[in-house]
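queue> holo job accepted (zinc ion)
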Amino acid sequence: MDYSAGQDCDAWCNKCKMVLRHVIHAVVEGKPVRVECKTCRGIHRFKASQTATAPRRTRTARRAAAPKEDKTLLEWERLTEGKTLDDGRRYTIFETFEAGEFVVHIKFGLGVVKTVQASRKVEIHFKDGVKTLVHSR
Ligand SMILES: [Zn+2]
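queue> job finished
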């Protein structure tokens, strides 16, 4: 049906934050364009419902860390459970490390030696992830 000025219609009121009865003030091509809220007496543009306006979506905060990083962190937490920096040997390139040994690196903190590689390299699992470092120099 076509509306005309002076009629009542249901419209969204931005002040009352709900759909309420409004008095139509202006009609264009049979549709209300300007309405007056019967509750707050506010005069505003016609909106059928709240969703007719630009929806304000709350973005769900996504964790920045990728699943792979989470996995290495969980693994590190498991490996170093109950350990402190006092339990690790201080890392320098002159020391020789063995797999399973706890290492304290000045930058990366506490880590666990995963594997000892050829050409004097060790893979150490730090909180940040697995790093390959030199040793036995
Ligand atoms: Zn209102």
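queue> The beta strands are 8-13, 18-28, 31-37, 43-45, 89-90, 102-105, 109-117, 121-126, 129-134.
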